[in-house]
Amino acid sequence: MIAGLEPAELPADAIEVGRIADAWGVKGWFKVLAFSAQPEALFSSKKWFLLPTEQGLKTFDGVAKLAIKEAKEHSDTVVASAHDVLDRDAAQALRGARVFVSRSSFPSVALDEYYWVDLIGLDVVNRQDEAMGSVKELLSTGAQTVLVMEYVLEGKVQERMIPFVSVFIDDVDLQLRRIRVDWQLDY
């Protein structure tokens, strides 16, 4: 096992939040390609869970836990250091590892704010209780976020998009796993 990694089990609520890109500097720091433009989950968690790269040289097997000392933004990326990863070679050995964080360690969100991962899979209904589909993904278009839903019409999977803005979104109920929208089936 690589220095700094402990064998572990992936938490049931683990969310993939990034990938280790490369070593950064000579003191064991490494670059992380975050999957979010606002990677607070990487900054708030002191325990990251790693799975080996899917392609290329695997330097470890199974799930490993990495104790994070510090994570911060640097230019357009995230850099981090971990306890017991003390030099460039040890950091380089982490290259390509998939980074997971327990959902329970994500920072709390403000009222009417949501993590995208919590919205994926929710059913969407309009004010007439007509099923609009289920959230497949969210897209950031710059000006706004867009819900991308899948639904079946005449045996074929279709997509529908709705801007995720308050004028169209009436309610998000995470417990009922439902989003109510002001949108019609024929829009």
Account of the protein in words:
With 187 residues, the chain is mainly beta. It folds into 2 domains: 100 residues, RimM (Elongation Factor Tu (Ef-tu), domain 3, Beta Barrel); 66 residues, Roll (SH3 type barrels). It is built from 3 helices and 13 strands, in the order βββαβββαβαββββββ. The chain is elongated.
Structure at a glance:
The protein has three helices and 13 strands; from the N terminus they run βββαβββαβαββββββ.
Tag the structure with descriptive keywords.
187 residues, mainly beta, SH3 type barrels, 2 domains, six-stranded antiparallel beta barrel, six-stranded mixed beta sheet
List the helices and strands and how they pair.
Blueprint: E1 5-7, E2 14-24, E3 29-34, H1 40-44, E4 47-51, E5 64-74, E6 77-82, H2 88-92, E7 98-102, H3 116-119, E8 123-126, E9 131-140, E10 145-153, E11 156-163, E12 169-173, E13 178-181
Order of helices and strands: EEEHEEEHEHEEEEEE
Count of the separate structural domains: 2
What's the level 1 CATH class of the largest domain? Answer: Mainly Beta
Radius of gyration: 20 Å
Helical residue percent?
under 10%
Termini Cα gap:
55 Å
- What's the total helix number? 3
- The unreliable regions are none
**Name of the CATH architecture of the largest domain:** Beta Barrel
Fraction of residues in β-strands: over 45%
CATH topology of the largest domain: Elongation Factor Tu (Ef-tu), domain 3
